[in-house]
């Protein structure tokens, strides 16, 4: 019967029967690069002997990562809603609240990163959770997913900007209307009241051309300036 010896950490072990060698392979003590002696000749790598057929047949100690289609995208789709929800909250409170949206984005990316690791995947670089579109893109590539949730998030971000801009202008219009009424009554000695202001054009940052509609049905062309202190200044040029 052929007996075997092998080398581990500079020491010889053996003799072993073929069954004992198979057990050592299963335990990871003998690998393809381990030097073995099959009972004659010189020491050779195990992969160069009949033992080569036994490598890879022992059961893995850990399962492979879950396939991309087996990993749900729950956190990604929740992430898509964050920019829009943030913009709506900004609209309600009347100011830009960047920090809550940023924190929500990062928190959802961290939760998703944890989920990927639990599924056996190496998640995108940890720093990418702080740059949300980078994380989403890398995640989709890692899982071989289509980029639907990436483009959905970009679209949501664009829509949130439109909501914020529209909300900001709406707040300016609402603030300008009573100022127009005061100017008309105090400077033009008229009893007319402003019923609404519509911004027509932003000439430069914070400076607008607008139209004020009066309760008489008349329209006035006005200018509105939003200054750094948050105050607005309304002027009624010669009509």
Number of domains: 3
Helix content: 40-55%
Shape type: rod-shaped
- Calculate the terminal CA-CA distance, rounded to whole Å: 113 Å
SSE series: EEHEEHHHHEEEE
Major beta sheet summary: 4 strands, antiparallel
What topology, given as strand order, has the largest sheet? Answer: 2-1-3-4
Which percent range describes the beta-strand content? Answer: 15-25%
Q: How large, in whole angstroms, is the Cα Rg?
A: 36 Å
Please give the number of β-strands: 8
Structural class: alpha+beta
Overall pLDDT level: 89
Number of helical stretches of at least 4 residues: 5
Could you name the ranges where pLDDT drops below 50 across 5 or more consecutive residues? none
Helix and strand arrangement:
Blueprint: E1 4-8, E2 11-16, H1 18-26, E3 35-37, E4 44-45, H2 74-93, H3 98-118, H4 132-142, H5 148-187, E5 194-204, E6 207-214, E7 219-226, E8 232-235
Quick rundown:
The chain is α+β, with helices and mostly antiparallel strands and 239 residues long. It is 42% helix and 20% strand. The chain folds into 3 domains: 4-54, no CATH class; 70-166, no CATH class; 170-235.
Report on this model:
- This is DUF4339 domain-containing protein.
- Pfam families: GYF_2 (PF14237).
- Keywords: Membrane, Transmembrane, Transmembrane helix.
- The protein folds into 3 domains: 51 residues, no CATH class; 97 residues, no CATH class; 66 residues.
- With 239 residues, it is an alpha+beta fold.
- The chain contains 5 helices and 8 strands, in the order ββαββααααββββ.
- The radius of gyration is 36 Å and the shape is rod-shaped.
- α2 packs antiparallel against α3, α2 packs parallel to α5 and α4 runs antiparallel to α5.
- The chain starts with a strand and ends with a strand.
- A hairpin with a 5-residue loop joins β7 and β8.
- The mean pLDDT is 89.
- A 4-stranded antiparallel sheet has the order 2-1-3-4. Strands 5-6-7-8 form a 4-stranded antiparallel sheet, covered by helices on one side.
